[in-house]
Amino acid sequence: DSGVTQTPKHLITATGQRVTLRCSPRSGDLSVYWYQQSLDQGLQFLIHYYNGEERAKGNILERFSAQQFPDLHSELNLSSLELGDSALYFCASSVGTTPQETQYFGPGTRLLVL
Amino acid sequence: GQNIDQPTEMTATEGAIVQINCTYQTSGFNGLFWYQQHAGEAPTFLSYNVLDGLEEKGRFSSFLSRSKGYSYLLLKELQMKDSASYLCAVRALDSSYKLIFGSGTRLLVRP
After folding, report:
1. Which parts of chain A have pLDDT scores under 50?
2. Rounded CA gap, A62 and B37, in Å?
3. Residue A48 to residue B87, Cβ atoms within 8 A
4. Nearest residue, CB atoms, B99 vs list A103, A106, A107
5. Which residue, among A87, A97, A48, has the nearest Cα to A68 in the 3D structure?
Protein backbone atom coordinates (compact mmCIF):
# COMPACT_ATOMS: atom_id res chain seq x y z
CA ASP A 1 0.00 0.00 0.00
CA SER A 2 1.59 3.25 -1.20
CA GLY A 3 -0.52 5.51 1.00
CA VAL A 4 -2.09 7.17 -2.05
CA THR A 5 -5.83 6.63 -2.32
CA GLN A 6 -8.06 6.95 -5.36
CA THR A 7 -11.81 6.73 -5.76
CA PRO A 8 -13.75 5.22 -7.34
CA LYS A 9 -11.94 2.01 -8.27
CA HIS A 10 -14.19 1.37 -11.23
CA LEU A 11 -16.39 3.64 -13.28
CA ILE A 12 -18.67 2.71 -16.15
CA THR A 13 -20.37 5.48 -18.05
CA ALA A 14 -21.65 6.44 -21.47
CA THR A 15 -20.21 8.57 -24.23
CA GLY A 16 -20.84 12.26 -23.77
CA GLN A 17 -20.97 12.04 -19.99
CA ARG A 18 -18.75 13.71 -17.39
CA VAL A 19 -16.94 12.04 -14.51
CA THR A 20 -14.74 13.11 -11.61
CA LEU A 21 -11.86 11.04 -10.31
CA ARG A 22 -10.49 11.73 -6.87
CA CYS A 23 -7.00 11.31 -5.42
CA SER A 24 -5.62 11.78 -1.92
CA PRO A 25 -1.84 11.94 -1.75
CA ARG A 26 0.35 10.37 0.92
CA SER A 27 0.43 12.28 4.15
CA GLY A 28 2.94 15.12 3.81
CA ASP A 29 3.19 14.99 0.02
CA LEU A 30 2.56 18.28 -1.75
CA SER A 31 2.88 17.11 -5.36
CA VAL A 32 0.19 15.22 -7.24
CA TYR A 33 0.62 13.83 -10.75
CA TRP A 34 -2.05 12.32 -12.99
CA TYR A 35 -1.27 9.62 -15.56
CA GLN A 36 -3.39 7.75 -18.07
CA GLN A 37 -2.66 4.14 -18.99
CA SER A 38 -4.35 2.66 -22.01
CA LEU A 39 -3.60 -0.69 -23.61
CA ASP A 40 -1.87 0.71 -26.64
CA GLN A 41 -0.04 3.67 -25.13
CA GLY A 42 1.45 2.81 -21.77
CA LEU A 43 1.57 5.35 -18.97
CA GLN A 44 1.16 8.92 -20.21
CA PHE A 45 1.63 12.02 -18.07
CA LEU A 46 -1.40 14.30 -17.92
CA ILE A 47 -0.83 17.03 -15.36
CA HIS A 48 1.15 17.97 -12.22
CA TYR A 49 0.03 20.03 -9.23
CA TYR A 50 2.19 21.27 -6.42
CA ASN A 51 0.66 22.71 -3.25
CA GLY A 52 -2.50 23.74 -5.02
CA GLU A 53 -0.95 25.20 -8.14
CA GLU A 54 -0.68 23.71 -11.60
CA ARG A 55 2.97 23.11 -12.44
CA ALA A 56 2.94 21.34 -15.78
CA LYS A 57 0.65 19.87 -18.39
CA GLY A 58 1.30 16.90 -20.61
CA ASN A 59 -0.80 15.77 -23.53
CA ILE A 60 -4.00 16.46 -21.64
CA LEU A 61 -7.10 16.96 -23.74
CA GLU A 62 -9.05 20.20 -23.43
CA ARG A 63 -12.04 18.10 -22.30
CA PHE A 64 -10.01 17.13 -19.23
CA SER A 65 -9.27 19.40 -16.31
CA ALA A 66 -7.90 19.00 -12.83
CA GLN A 67 -7.40 20.87 -9.61
CA GLN A 68 -5.73 20.45 -6.25
CA PHE A 69 -7.58 21.64 -3.18
CA PRO A 70 -6.25 23.28 0.02
CA ASP A 71 -6.29 19.90 1.78
CA LEU A 72 -4.05 18.69 -1.10
CA HIS A 73 -6.45 16.15 -2.53
CA SER A 74 -6.86 16.39 -6.27
CA GLU A 75 -9.67 15.78 -8.73
CA LEU A 76 -9.47 14.98 -12.42
CA ASN A 77 -12.56 15.92 -14.40
CA LEU A 78 -13.22 14.22 -17.72
CA SER A 79 -16.05 15.58 -19.85
CA SER A 80 -17.72 14.80 -23.18
CA LEU A 81 -16.37 11.30 -22.78
CA GLU A 82 -15.44 9.26 -25.83
CA LEU A 83 -14.85 5.54 -26.22
CA GLY A 84 -11.12 6.19 -26.48
CA ASP A 85 -11.05 7.68 -22.98
CA SER A 86 -11.48 4.20 -21.54
CA ALA A 87 -8.29 3.58 -19.59
CA LEU A 88 -6.74 3.26 -16.16
CA TYR A 89 -6.17 6.63 -14.53
CA PHE A 90 -3.47 6.78 -11.89
CA CYS A 91 -2.46 9.54 -9.60
CA ALA A 92 0.93 9.62 -7.96
CA SER A 93 2.32 11.79 -5.21
CA SER A 94 5.71 12.93 -4.02
CA VAL A 95 6.94 15.16 -1.24
CA GLY A 96 7.86 18.15 -3.38
CA THR A 97 9.51 18.77 -6.69
CA THR A 98 13.15 17.72 -6.42
CA PRO A 99 14.37 15.40 -9.19
CA GLN A 100 15.34 12.45 -7.02
CA GLU A 101 11.96 12.12 -5.37
CA THR A 102 10.05 8.94 -5.95
CA GLN A 103 6.51 9.16 -7.19
CA TYR A 104 4.19 6.77 -5.35
CA PHE A 105 1.17 5.59 -7.29
CA GLY A 106 -2.37 5.06 -6.14
CA PRO A 107 -4.40 1.96 -7.06
CA GLY A 108 -5.97 3.68 -10.04
CA THR A 109 -9.47 4.23 -11.37
CA ARG A 110 -10.54 2.00 -14.22
CA LEU A 111 -12.82 3.97 -16.53
CA LEU A 112 -14.95 2.23 -19.12
CA VAL A 113 -16.86 4.39 -21.57
CA LEU A 114 -19.63 2.56 -23.43
CA GLY B 1 11.94 14.81 -26.95
CA GLN B 2 12.37 11.54 -25.12
CA ASN B 3 12.21 7.98 -26.42
CA ILE B 4 12.44 4.91 -24.23
CA ASP B 5 12.78 1.36 -25.53
CA GLN B 6 12.31 -1.91 -23.69
CA PRO B 7 11.68 -5.45 -24.91
CA THR B 8 7.98 -6.23 -25.00
CA GLU B 9 8.10 -9.65 -23.38
CA MET B 10 10.55 -11.96 -21.65
CA THR B 11 10.28 -15.43 -20.21
CA ALA B 12 12.47 -16.92 -17.49
CA THR B 13 12.53 -19.88 -15.14
CA GLU B 14 11.90 -19.82 -11.42
CA GLY B 15 15.19 -19.50 -9.52
CA ALA B 16 17.05 -18.06 -12.50
CA ILE B 17 18.39 -14.56 -13.20
CA VAL B 18 16.91 -12.22 -15.79
CA GLN B 19 18.12 -8.88 -17.12
CA ILE B 20 15.66 -6.38 -18.54
CA ASN B 21 17.22 -3.70 -20.69
CA CYS B 22 16.12 -0.13 -21.28
CA THR B 23 17.60 2.37 -23.70
CA TYR B 24 16.64 6.01 -23.83
CA GLN B 25 17.23 9.00 -26.05
CA THR B 26 16.70 12.23 -24.25
CA SER B 27 17.39 15.93 -24.58
CA GLY B 28 17.95 16.05 -20.84
CA PHE B 29 18.21 13.55 -18.01
CA ASN B 30 17.19 13.82 -14.40
CA GLY B 31 17.30 10.23 -13.23
CA LEU B 32 15.91 6.83 -14.22
CA PHE B 33 13.34 4.81 -12.32
CA TRP B 34 12.20 1.21 -12.48
CA TYR B 35 8.70 0.25 -11.43
CA GLN B 36 6.97 -3.12 -11.18
CA GLN B 37 3.34 -3.38 -12.21
CA HIS B 38 1.11 -6.40 -11.82
CA ALA B 39 -1.81 -6.51 -14.23
CA GLY B 40 -4.48 -3.98 -13.31
CA GLU B 41 -2.57 -2.73 -10.29
CA ALA B 42 -0.54 0.33 -9.43
CA PRO B 43 3.11 0.64 -10.45
CA THR B 44 5.32 0.12 -7.40
CA PHE B 45 8.75 1.70 -7.07
CA LEU B 46 11.76 -0.58 -7.40
CA SER B 47 14.84 1.57 -7.95
CA TYR B 48 16.30 4.94 -8.87
CA ASN B 49 19.57 5.70 -10.63
CA VAL B 50 20.97 9.13 -11.38
CA LEU B 51 24.70 8.37 -11.40
CA ASP B 52 26.48 5.70 -13.44
CA GLY B 53 26.84 2.33 -11.81
CA LEU B 54 24.98 -0.42 -10.07
CA GLU B 55 22.42 -0.01 -7.28
CA GLU B 56 21.62 -3.20 -5.41
CA LYS B 57 18.49 -3.83 -3.36
CA GLY B 58 18.05 -7.39 -2.28
CA ARG B 59 17.14 -9.58 -5.24
CA PHE B 60 16.82 -6.55 -7.53
CA SER B 61 19.68 -4.47 -8.95
CA SER B 62 19.64 -1.62 -11.42
CA PHE B 63 22.47 -0.32 -13.57
CA LEU B 64 22.86 2.97 -15.41
CA SER B 65 25.24 4.23 -18.08
CA ARG B 66 24.41 7.84 -18.91
CA SER B 67 26.92 8.07 -21.75
CA LYS B 68 25.25 5.11 -23.48
CA GLY B 69 21.67 6.03 -22.56
CA TYR B 70 21.29 2.55 -21.14
CA SER B 71 19.94 0.91 -18.03
CA TYR B 72 19.09 -2.58 -16.96
CA LEU B 73 17.15 -4.18 -14.15
CA LEU B 74 18.54 -7.46 -12.86
CA LEU B 75 16.27 -9.84 -11.01
CA LYS B 76 17.92 -12.75 -9.19
CA GLU B 77 16.44 -15.91 -7.69
CA LEU B 78 13.27 -15.43 -9.65
CA GLN B 79 9.99 -16.25 -7.96
CA MET B 80 6.60 -16.86 -9.53
CA LYS B 81 5.34 -13.62 -7.98
CA ASP B 82 7.90 -11.70 -10.07
CA SER B 83 5.68 -12.29 -13.12
CA ALA B 84 4.67 -8.71 -13.89
CA SER B 85 5.41 -5.79 -16.16
CA TYR B 86 8.59 -3.82 -15.50
CA LEU B 87 8.49 -0.16 -16.45
CA CYS B 88 11.52 1.96 -17.16
CA ALA B 89 10.92 5.68 -16.69
CA VAL B 90 13.08 8.75 -17.18
CA ARG B 91 12.53 11.90 -15.19
CA ALA B 92 12.03 14.95 -17.39
CA LEU B 93 14.64 17.67 -17.23
CA ASP B 94 12.01 20.40 -17.47
CA SER B 95 10.13 21.82 -14.51
CA SER B 96 7.31 19.31 -14.78
CA TYR B 97 9.29 16.53 -13.06
CA LYS B 98 7.04 14.14 -14.91
CA LEU B 99 8.08 10.58 -15.50
CA ILE B 100 8.31 9.46 -19.12
CA PHE B 101 7.60 5.76 -19.27
CA GLY B 102 8.62 3.07 -21.68
CA SER B 103 5.93 0.65 -22.79
CA GLY B 104 7.08 -1.88 -20.22
CA THR B 105 8.47 -5.39 -20.37
CA ARG B 106 6.09 -8.20 -19.51
CA LEU B 107 8.00 -10.89 -17.63
CA LEU B 108 6.64 -14.39 -17.32
CA VAL B 109 8.29 -16.64 -14.75
CA ARG B 110 7.75 -20.34 -15.39
CA PRO B 111 8.18 -23.19 -12.87
Report:
1. none
2. 29
3. no
4. A103
5. A48
